[in-house]
Specification:
Layout (H helix, E strand, L loop, with lengths): L9 H8 L4 H7 L8 E5 L5 H10 L4 E5 L3 H13 L5 E4 L2 E2 L4 E6 L20 E7 L1 H4 L6 E4 L5 H6 L2 H7 L2 E5 L3 H15 L1 E6 L2 E6 L6 H4 L2 E3 L17 E8 L3 H12 L6 E9 L15 E7 L6 H9 L7 E5 L3 E3 L3 H15 L3 E4 L3 E2 L6 H4 L1 E12 L2 E10 L5 E3 L6 E5 H6 L11 H14 L3 E4 L5 E3 L10 H10 L3 H12 L16 H8 L7 H8 L2 H7 L9
Parallel strand pairs: 1-2, 1-7, 2-3, 4-6, 7-8, 12-13, 12-15, 13-14, 17-23, 18-24
Antiparallel strand pairs: 5-6, 8-10, 9-10, 9-11, 15-22, 16-24, 17-22, 19-20, 21-23
C-alpha cells in the first residue's frame, strides 16, 4: 500500500501498526454484506476503502470521494495496486450543493495530519468540484461513511433523498461542536434516524428499523430539549469564554467554577478546544453542561496553543464580550460583572481597549498578602535571536486601569466584535510566546488599541501543576509533531514584526504569507517603530537582529 511519508496520523499508524482505526472496522464490518454499495466521503489514501472493498466482494461497489489532489492520486494508486475492481474513486468534494469549491493544498513535504484539513481552513487552495450524494443518486446504498472535518451536516443535507430511499447505515465524525446539536436535530427530524456514540464518531440507522446487536449496545444520543430563552439586556452583555485544553482534566472544574462564580451565569457561553486521546473519558462531563461547546481533536492533530485558540474563536456566536483563559483557572465571585465594569473604565481612556494581565496563582486566591497586587505586563524579559518575551511585574492594584505593553494569554478580555476583527493566525503551528502574546499585542497596538491592566482581580490560574497532568505518552507525541515547527513559525513572526527579511521566512509559508500580512499583520494607526519605542526595546532589537527594519534609525 502506498503511504504518504509525511502524514502524522493515518499513514503513520499504517506504517507503525499496520492498521488504522481498527475499532471502526470492527463495528462496521458486521453491518456490511457481499454485494452492498458503500459511499465513503473523505477517503484519504484508501485505508477504509480497501477494507470496504473486501467486505462487499466482487458483486459490490465502493464509491470513494477525496477532493485533495495528492491524496486522491494515492487513493487511486492503492486501488490499482491491489486490483480492487469494485472501487470507484472520485476527485470530488461532497456537500449540500453542486458547483465549484476551493480545495486545500497543504505542503506535503512537511509533517502534518493531511486528513485533518477542512475545506474551511485558511490555507493555500485550488479550485475543484463539489457534488451531492443526491446528484450521484446511487441505485442502492447500504452504508455512508463521512469524514470531512466539519462538513458532515452539509453532506447529510445533500443526501436527504438518497437516505430516505435506501435507508443506509450512517457513520460520521461527531467532534465538531458547532454543528453537534443541529446534526442531532436534523438526523431525528429530517432523516428520522437514531444515532449512537462510537468514540468520537456516531453510527446511525433509520428509526423504523431495529438496531443491529453491535449498535444496540452503544449509547444513544438525542437532541437536547430546547432551553428556555434568557432575556439579555444591552447592559448585561453576553460573554464567550475561550478555553484551549491540551490533555488537562482540570478543564472540567474550570468550566464548572466559571458558571458557579458568575454573577449572571446565563450570560456566559464557553467554547473548549479539547486536544485529548480518543479513548480518554475524563472529559465526557463537559458534553452534559449547558452552554458549553466542545471541539475535540485527537492529540495527534494538535498544533499548539495558537491553533487551538483559533479553533475556539470559531465556536463564538453572538457574544458581546470575549474572554480567553487557561484551562486550569478559577474565578472570583462575580467575575463577569468585574470584567465588564473594568472594561467600561478602560474604554473611558481609549474606546479601543483590551484588558489583560498575568492572573495570580490559584493557591494565593485566599491570601491577603496577594490580593492587593496584580501582574502587570510592563517589560520585556529577554530579547534574543531565537525568541523575544514580554513579561510582567507585581504592582499594587492601580486606581485606574494601567496601560500595558503586552498581553497575557491567560487573561484577555475584549469586545467580541474586536476579536472577530483580530483573530489568531491558525498557521502559527507550535508557536511560542512571541508568536502568540508579543505578535498579538503589537497587532492590537498598531491598530490603535491600548491594553490595560484592571484595578481588581477576576480570576486566577495554575502556574505549576498543569504540565504534570499531561501523560508522558502524550508529551512524546507532541514533541514528535512539533519538530521543526517552532523555528518555522518564528521565522514568519520575525518578518511580521519587522525583525527579518521576507527571504528568511520558512518556505512552508511561501503560499500564504501575503494573506497572512493582510489578515494577521500589523496595523497603520500607529507605527511598528512607535511600538518599539513605547516598549523601550528599539536599541536592543538593533543589537540582536541584523535585519531589523529600523536598524538605521
Amino acid at each position: 500500500m502506498y503511504l504518504l511519508e509525511t502524514d502524522t496520523v493515518i499513514c503513520e499508524s499504517l506504517r507503525t501498526t499496520g492498521d488504522y482505526a481498527p475499532d471502526e472496522k470492527a463495528l462496521l464490518g458486521p453491518l456490511i454484506a457481499s454485494g452492498d454499495t458503500i459511499l465513503y466521503v473523505g477517503a484519504n489514501v484508501g485505508n477504509h476503502t480497501l477494507f470496504f472493498s473486501q467486505c462487499v466482494g466482487p458483486e459490490g461497489r465502493v464509491l470513494s470521494f477525496e477532493p485533495q489532489r495528492f491524496l486522491f492520486k494515492i487513493l487511486c494508486a492503492n486501488a490499482l495496486l491491489g486490483r480492487y475492481q469494485n472501487v470507484w474513486p472520485y476527485r470530488l468534494a461532497v456537500g449540500d450543493e453542486e458547483g465549484k469549491v476551493d480545495i486545500p493544498v497543504p505542503n506535503y513535504e512537511r509533517a502534518n495530519n493531511f486528513g485533518g484539513y477542512s475545506l474551511s481552513f485558511d490555507t493555500f487552495k485550488e479550485e475543484g468540484d463539489i457534488t451531492t450524494i443526491d446528484a450521484i443518486s446511487p441505485d442502492q446504498c447500504h452504508l455512508i461513511k463521512i469524514d470531512v472535518e466539519g462538513m458532515e451536516l452539509s453532506v447529510l443535507k445533500g443526501a436527504v433523498e438518497t437516505i430516505a430511499r435506501t435507508r443506509p447505515f450512517l457513520y460520521f465524525e461527531y467532534n465538531r461542536p458547532e454543528f453537534r446539536e443541529e446534526i442531532l436535530r436534523f438526523s431525528a427530524d429530517q432523516l428520522r434516524y437514531r444515532l449512537y456514540r462510537h468514540g468520537q464518531n456516531v453510527v446511525g440507522h433509520h428509526a423504523d428499523e431495529a438496531p443491529p446487536e453491535s449498535v444496540a449496545n452503544l449509547t444513544e444520543i438525542t437532541p437536547k430539549s430546547t432551553p428556555t430563552a434568557v432575556k439579555m439586556t444591552a447592559s448585561s452583555g453576553k460573554i464567550f469564554v475561550s478555553i484551549a485544553c491540551f490533555c488537562d482534566p482540570d478543564v472540567v472544574d474550570t468550566v464548572k467554577d466559571c458558571f458557579e462564580k458568575a454573577g449572571s451565569p446565563a450570560r456566559v457561553e464557553i467554547g473548549v478546544c479539547l486536544q485529548a486521546k480518543p479513548n480518554d473519558a475524563s472529559y465526557e462531563e463537559l458534553n452534559d453542561i449547558a452552554r458549553v461547546t466542545v471541539d475535540r481533536i485527537d492529540v495527534t492533530q494538535a498544533r499548539g496553543p495558537i491553533y487551538a485558540r483559533a479553533r475556539c474563536e470559531a465556536l463564538m456566536s453572538d457574544a458581546d464580550y470575549f474572554l480567553q483563559i487557561d484551562c486550569h483557572s478559577r474565578f472570583f465571585p462575580g467575575w463577569d460583572e468585574i470584567l465588564i465594569q473594568e472594561f467600561a473604565k478602560a474604554s473611558e481612556l481609549n474606546d479601543s481597549a483590551v484588558l489583560s494581565h498575568y492572573p495570580m496563582n490559584i493557591k494565593n486566591m485566599a491570601s491577603s498578602d496577594h490580593l492587593d497586587r496584580i501582574g502587570h505586563v510592563n517589560r520585556y524579559r529577554y530579547i534574543e535571536a531565537d525568541a523575544i518575551k514580554s513579561h510582567g511585574s507585581l504592582i499594587k492594584l492601580p486606581e485606574v486601569p494601567a496601560t500595558s505593553l503586552g498581553i497575557s494569554a491567560a487573561m484577555l478580555f475584549m469586545r467580541a466584535k474586536d476579536r472577530r476583527r483580530f483573530p489568531y493566525d491558525p498557521e502559527l503551528d507550535f508557536g511560542l510566546h512571541a508568536a502568540e502574546q508579543v505578535l498579538y499585542a503589537v497587532r492590537l497596538w498598531t491598530h490603535g488599541f491600548d491594553i490595560f491592566c484592571p484595578t481588581q482581580h477576576a480570576l486566577a490560574t495554575d502556574y505549576e501543576g498543569s504540565r504534570d497532568r499531561i501523560p508522558d505518552e502524550v508529551k512524546r507525541i507532541s514533541n514528535a509533531n512539533r519538530t521543526g515547527w517552532p523555528e518555522a513559525t518564528w521565522s514568519k513572526v520575525k518578518y511580521l514584526l519587522g525583525l527579518d527579511h521576507i527571504e528568511q521566512v520558512d518556505p512552508v509559508y511561501s503560499d500564504t504569507l501575503g494573506d497572512s500580512m493582510a489578515r494577521f499583520g500589523v496595523g497603520d494607526e500607529r507605527s511598528l517603530r512607535a511600538y518599539y519605542d513605547f516598549a523601550g526595546i528599539h536599541d536592543e532589537l538593533k543589537r540582536v537582529f541584523p535585519n531589523y527594519r529600523y536598524a538605521e534609525d
